[in-house]
Amino acid sequence: MSKSTEKQHIKNNNKLPDRKILLDVGENGVAIISINRPPLNLLSVDVLLSLKENIEEAMRKDNVKAIVITGSRGNFSAGFDVTAFGGSQQRKTKRELGFMSIEFITDTLEAARKPIVAAVEGLALGGGFEIALACHARISTSTSKLGLPELQYGILPGFGGTQRLPRLVGLQKALEMILMSKRIRGEEAYNMCLVDAISPPNQLLGSACQWALDILECRRPWSISLFRTDRLAPLAEARTLLNSVRAQMQKQNPNVIHPLVCIDVIEHGILSGPRNGLWKEAEALHELRQSDSCRSLVHVFFAKQSTSKIPGITDMGLRPRKIHKVAVLGGSSMSSGIATVLVLANHYVIMKYIDQVSLQNGIDRVKANLEGHFKEGRMTQEHYKKACTLFKGVLSYDSFKDVDLVIEDVPDIVSLKQQFFADLDECCPPHCIFASNTCIVNLDLIGERMKPCKEIVGIHFFSPPSVIDLLEIVRTERTSPQVLVDLLSFGRRIQRTPIVVRNCTGFAVRRMHFPYLQAAMLLVECGADVYQIDKALNSFGMKLGPFRMVDQDGFQSATTHEMKFLETFPDRSHKSNLIPILRKSNREGESTCQGFYTYNDKGEASPDPEVSTYIEMARSMSGITIKSKVATLSDGEIVEMILFPVLNEACSMISEAIIVKSSDLNVASVMGMGFPAYRGGIIFWSHSVGSKYICSKLEDWSKEYGEFFKPCAYLVERASKGHSLGAQIKLAKSPL
Ligand SMILES: C[C@H](O)CC(=O)SCCNC(=O)CCNC(=O)[C@H](O)C(C)(C)COP(=O)(O)OP(=O)(O)OC[C@H]1O[C@@H](n2cnc3c(N)ncnc32)[C@H](O)[C@@H]1OP(=O)(O)O
């Protein structure tokens, strides 16, 4: 590309016309076609049709020798607009996507008589990435993000990704990227030969134009991805791999079919040829996009996106203040996990604790976490070196003068927390935000010894913070809109999904955990089997059944939470003696290798027949007798008797405006308690069950087994009107 054309293109880009596709022919005879639907250049049928027309126009023009496809304003394309899937609009575009894949992407773009090169900057995801895969070469910046995340929505790559990716990078790597929705950076893509060259952003278009001309003049290969075979393994080897991955997927996700359909489509292309594979892919996309799983997963995507939109707060025009330096107070593994997450997101972090030994342990854990990231290839050497300089451990408050945020993570002892915050009040700058990671101590109580003008908010991470991306931001009556805006932006920057909750016992996630475990305890005391309960909930799709979950959390924490819940919600708590009895026998859950299960050296759980003795003891202490109906419950009935009380608690939270939107509870249940995303989250799932049915079941059980099951007023009202359980939260009720 000549300098003048490039300048002209940049000039055009700064003041781009209101067209979805831009075509600009340079003096060198290369047409630059830009997808122009900022900010992410999302695709739709209209955009694709327009892209097709522009490519055809460039083909017709005599002055065009070659084509470069790129995206405007720093992104190639984040893929197809997901609103087209799982929702009401899907009928409109029935089968059009399949034809786009074959008639446009394959027969127009890939089969073009002039070379087409993709210049990839920023995001190239889903359909966007698939367009790049069909080009005759790809030039990328080192930091671009490429991937096929379609399985996250219960569909499969629908623009040829299932056929072209295995042919470009080999079956194993392609399966890894597709089935795990793995995104890779430009650099890694280059190492895998998925992109042909890396270029700095300011030279990207120039390099891509030159590459296209080089193809034309036979100095570079004219590669047709769909017909490459050099990276495909021999048939028998491919089949063995596909069968083993199929079995793995079936085991991991027994309730969903889309990963298996995707594997079948890939296999079909290998066995029957890529063009047949494309047709099968188109058919599969058409079927899958109408499935319940797709609807639910698309809901979860948008529910996650909307957690940081708070009416009356985030639309006030407040700009988030920058949070550069964060102090983490504490030396536990949770504190180290939080510090690691922050350092990885390029924050300067100081870790402070009171004694040298605990602090040193904390520091060592952060260093080990960072090293682990580097060794597993999740960060570059350069990033690793920089991350190490961003972190230090301290015993004093000397370096707190310029701290923007403090996250307290000391043991849940009120006087200890109060002392820390009273000290911090003296050492931190006025703008510093004070936050606690507690999920059980009242935030107002923690701040009692601070100056009256200071406020404390909650920033609640989940264990382990490096794995669970959810963040509860807990507001009190005094939390200002500015602090909320700051923390929501901070949450996104550290790549968490923040949900805003009101200060209450257990916040959103623990409040749902509690009835999950309590219902299970009650059923066991009435005669149900511990392991059948966990199995039933697993088969429903919960990551962990209640007993495996409490073993993992530890009985110490379960006891602390139980006491707090019994105190706050005595009317709807079932007091069980089971955990105290197990603790008397030194069973503390997974940490002691004995809880409801026993654990071997590898941490694998096995049912423990001895547990029945403890259950007998608990039963006789509570005076509960075995009820034959409970002892013979089916798996489906168990699921209802455990999850309807969770829904009941979720309904109480809606009516108390603990969360901002009912969809936040879907996010909280999926990310915080392992509710299956393909069922859309706890409230979304309830729509398929029906509020009337849920309410009548709870009413029946409350008559038979006690107040624990009594439906809350909100649930009764919604059911009586035949309304679904999700509702617009009346923010007037909340201090926001
Ligand atoms: C046929 C094909 O094979 C099928 C496909 O292509 S499926 C689609 C594949 N693409 C994806 O999955 C990308 C999904 N998007 C994301 O992961 C993230 O948005 C992102 C990493 C691209 C960008 O993140 P970030 O810069 O933080 O921007 P983010 O706030 O998330 O997005 C900006 C807006 O675009 C929307 N958006 C992003 N990707 C979207 C998509 N694929 N469809 C619809 N809306 C989308 C977001 O909801 C948000 O909307 P809002 O401003 O109203 O809240």
UniProtKB/TrEMBL annotation:
Highest taxon, organism lineage: Eukaryota
Q: Name one GO molecular function term.
A: NAD+ binding
Subcellular location(s) of the protein: Peroxisome
Q: 3-hydroxyacyl-CoA dehydrogenase C-terminal domain: which residues?
A: 506-599
> Could you tell me which InterPro entries the record lists for this protein?
3-OHacyl-CoA_DH_NAD-bd, 3HC_DH_C, 6-PGluconate_DH-like_C_sf, ClpP/crotonase-like_dom_sf, Enoyl-CoA_hyd/isom_CS, Enoyl-CoA_hydra/iso, NAD(P)-bd_dom_sf
Q: What is its main location?
A: other
Residues in domain 3-hydroxyacyl-CoA dehydrogenase NAD binding?
325-504
Is the keyword tRNA-binding assigned to this protein? no
Q: Name one GO biological process term.
A: fatty acid beta-oxidation
Give the family, as the similarity comment puts it: In the central section; belongs to the 3-hydroxyacyl-CoA dehydrogenase family.
Name under which the protein is recorded: Enoyl-CoA hydratase
